[in-house]
Design a protein that fits this description.
Length: 431
């Protein structure tokens, strides 16, 4: 049916209408019918839809062609997506992003996102499509931005170092890092609760995570991470999203609320992974100089995030999400282990643990097992810094709090303190 319309006959209104009806009929017939989709692709159907997108003057026909293509790409087998890529589909779809109606642009970007995990896209240069996609990230059309970010995140991924992905280099050299940060900065203050806004943030963080790892060499990876930290406001944006990403947990959540909750947890883990990578590249000093836009330094930000996470974990009824929340706390504590040896660490930590500080008050008043254990684990790490250990040793109020915890019969505290082996936390760390 479609072949009959790929002709150069005289155009007229009836024929245009017939085109989009037949294209949509094919889409409907193939909906949730994977065997029909595979047959359609085998008979050059993907190429025909791309032909319509390239040659058809009617916006309506182009829209239905993109809509049908997106439906065909929704297939568990990657062969259809691979066929689309082989037929120069990425170029055709990206070219449409420079003009057209919003609905056409959204469908084309959705198709791009659907093919973005095809392995060959990590090996071939996509400079023109990527440039067109970067230019669209400032759009006010949320769905369009979401799909474009999804495409960037996938084509920027690499399974391992030493595999050259030309698209990672192109993105870094053409302000891809800056574009992703701009998206995150813009969406920081948006709190309308729409799922798509959280998905935009998720995709931007995912893309940023992939653009800070696995370049052709370790040295090149370190250079890119340094370049990222040198972008004005980059670390502030990371810390802002880490802290502002309040976890929206409700005892009874509908499907949408649960999806947003899970996205937020994953976002925090990815942001912490970016921070760990910055440390891996010897840039700890830059992190310890960074602060949120409200002036909260990196150390206090991480402590606040750990406490928020512990509070939510205590309430959470979903086992998989509880495991992710535990992982979040573990990531933060691992970051603190890496911080301890840096000269600026003690300087930032000291006011947070002095006298009647918020930290000490939380140690004293916490009724949450999760938060109390997290605080004790943090104390265990921080006490490795000699001057902070001595400060705690001289603080009688703090030592009383520690003795209270060690005298507690809670199983988690008993295991932590090593009482069973006659090696108490107090003797081991604060001697």
């Amino acid at each position: 049916m479609l072949r009959a319309f790929i002709q150069s006959n005289i155009e007229h209104r009836l024929r245009e209408r017939n085109k989009h009806i037949i294209i949509d009929t094919v889409r409907i017939l193939a909906h949730r019918e994977d065997s029909i989709k595979k047959y359609f692709a085998k008979e050059n159907g993907i190429e025909m839809l791309l032909w319509f997108l390239t040659n058809e003057p009617s916006e309506q026909v182009m829209y239905y062609a993109a809509f049908a293509l997106r439906s065909m790409l929704n297939h568990p087998d990657k062969t259809i997506a691979e066929r689309c890529v082989s037929a120069d589909g990425v170029k055709v779809l990206a070219d449409k992003l420079s003009h057209g109606s919003p609905r056409l642009l959204v469908e084309c970007s959705n198709c791009l996102s659907a093919v973005s995990d095809v392995e060959t896209l990590r090996q071939i240069e996509l400079s023109r499509p990527l440039l067109q996609i970067l230019q669209i990230l400032g759009s006010s059309e949320s769905e369009l931005v979401k799909h474009c970010l999804g495409f960037i995140g996938n084509v920027a991924s690499s399974s391992r170092t030493a595999v050259v992905n030309p698209n990672k280099e192109f993105l870094v050299k053409n302000k891809g890092l800056e574009s992703l940060l701009n998206v995150l900065q813009y969406h920081l203050s948006l709190s309308d609760g729409h799922l798509v806004e959280f998905e935009i943030i998720e995709n931007a963080i995912f893309a940023l995570k992939n653009l800070t790892a696995n370049f052709s060499t370790v040295d090149r990876t370190n250079i890119v991470r340094k370049q990222f930290t040198e972008i004005e406001g980059s670390l502030t944006t990371i810390l802002d999203h880490l802290l502002a990403n309040q976890l929206f947990y409700y005892p009874r959540m509908n499907r949408l609320q649960f999806q947003i909750f899970d996205i937020q947890i994953e976002n925090r883990i990815d942001l912490l992974l970016i921070i760990q990578r910055i440390i891996d590249s010897g840039l700890t000093g830059r992190l310890l100089k960074a602060h949120t836009s409200a002036g909260i330094n990196c150390i206090e930000t991480l402590i606040n995030v750990a406490l928020q996470t512990g509070d939510i974990k205590e309430k959470c009824a979903f086992e998989q999400q509880k495991a992710k929340l535990s992982s979040t706390i573990d990531h933060i504590l691992n970051i603190f282990r890496r911080f301890v040896d840096h000269p600026k660490f003690a300087q930032q930590m000291r006011p947070l643990i002095s006298g009647h500080s918020k930290f000490n008050e939380l140690m004293r008043s916490s009724t949450s097992i999760t938060i109390s254990l997290a605080l004790l684990r943090l104390v265990d790490i921080v006490a490795d810094e000699p001057s902070l250990r001595e400060q705690w040793h001289q603080d009688t109020n703090f030592m009383d709090i520690i003795r209270f915890y060690l005298a507690h019969k809670q199983l988690e505290f008993f295991i932590f303190s090593g009482i069973g082996s006659n090696d108490t936390f107090e003797n081991r760390r604060l001697r």
